[in-house]
Amino acid sequence: MSIDQVKKTSVLIAGAGIGGLAMALSLLRRGIDCDVFEQASELREVGAGLWVSMNGVRVLRDLGLADQVEQNCIAAERRSIRLWNTGETWSLYDRSTDAARNQPYLLLRAHLLKILVDGVRRAKADAIHLNAHVVGFSQSRDEIRVRLADGREIEGRALIGADGSHSKVRTGLIGQIESQYTNAIAWRGLVPVDRLEPYQREPVVSTWIGPTAHVTAYPVRWQDTELMTFSGQVDRNDWLLESWSEKGSVEECLKDFMGWHPDIIALVSNVESLHKWGLFVRPTLADWSQGRVTLLGDACHSMLPYLGQGVNMALEDASVLARCLEQHPDDPARAFQTYQSLRLDRTTRVVNSAAGMLPIFHNSALSRAETAGDYIRTQWAPEATAARYDWIYQYDATAVPLH
């Protein structure tokens, strides 16, 4: 089916990222017709790892994807906090303990994207439309009309903007929102494990924390190859480009981690591809639904990566929104207002909590051996970790009451 043949009764979704595809699959599994419009000419991801925590895992199970994800992920044996320069280690959880109930799925973003694409196409072979950039819309009492960059227009009964932090749907709803640079950048890359020493290949999530930077490293699998992810955030006031795909150099990255433990230097030195981007924030929205239009994921609540919850919030959004549309199939405006009322407080709290993690990860107490140990034992004690994470992981988007 071509774009010109999209049914006027279809729910239109802008963006075929993880949030948009999870939204489409959630709707199709409930018998609600939808079409996804993606500006790219092919569905691919710049190489990066992600973790899906238990709140996201529940959504994947509800979508019937848990088995496929488990076949492609690596189960972490442990999670540890490590000191930036000495490598001293403090355990956060071990799979043999009760704390492992919140163990994440570790996998490549590209893997999850492919699993979702395949799921959507099994449900509706022609649901995803490429080279279809949603740039605007208009709505009436009875329909939504979406405008694409090439001038084509598509009619539907509702529009969901899952088109990321630079969302055109959001701009059409509430105007331009300026972003603010946080004086921090992020590095990300993948390292083939055969370039590392055997002890560096273990299935462990390691978060290295320091005075002005931190690094998270964990293994992922691509086909028959194991890779180690490198994700580093660094305090820097000289980076002003908000881009997820800017190429970075190993030499520049090494300068940001000068004096760090040899394990981190080895990761950076052996990275296969390296990208960097500036970390920006936008004000939280008080309203992201109007009539037959709503937003999802980064389009309405983009967040800093310090809790690893961007993908998980998008999965939660998709599940709750699909359930709301199922409950009010003939009244998308009501469904969207219900969805917003259920998600606004939670996502705002997660956004604020993610931003509040920066001084936990980057702290001057970590610069001296005599203060670092006490700091980590206090900030990363079991009770502190539980208070920080458990309320996020325990949420079940597939069962939250719709009222």
From TrEMBL:
<dbReference type="Pfam" id="PF01494">
    <property type="entry name" value="FAD_binding_3"/>
</dbReference>
<dbReference type="InterPro" id="IPR050493">
    <property type="entry name" value="FAD-dep_Monooxygenase_BioMet"/>
</dbReference>
<dbReference type="GO" id="GO:0071949">
    <property type="term" value="F:FAD binding"/>
</dbReference>
<dbReference type="GO" id="GO:0004497">
    <property type="term" value="F:monooxygenase activity"/>
</dbReference>
<dbReference type="InterPro" id="IPR002938">
    <property type="entry name" value="FAD-bd"/>
</dbReference>
<dbReference type="InterPro" id="IPR036188">
    <property type="entry name" value="FAD/NAD-bd_sf"/>
</dbReference>
<keyword id="KW-0560">Oxidoreductase</keyword>
<feature type="domain" description="FAD-binding">
    <location>
        <begin position="8"/>
        <end position="353"/>
    </location>
</feature>
<protein>
    <submittedName>
        <fullName>2-polyprenyl-6-methoxyphenol hydroxylase</fullName>
    </submittedName>
</protein>
<keyword id="KW-0503">Monooxygenase</keyword>
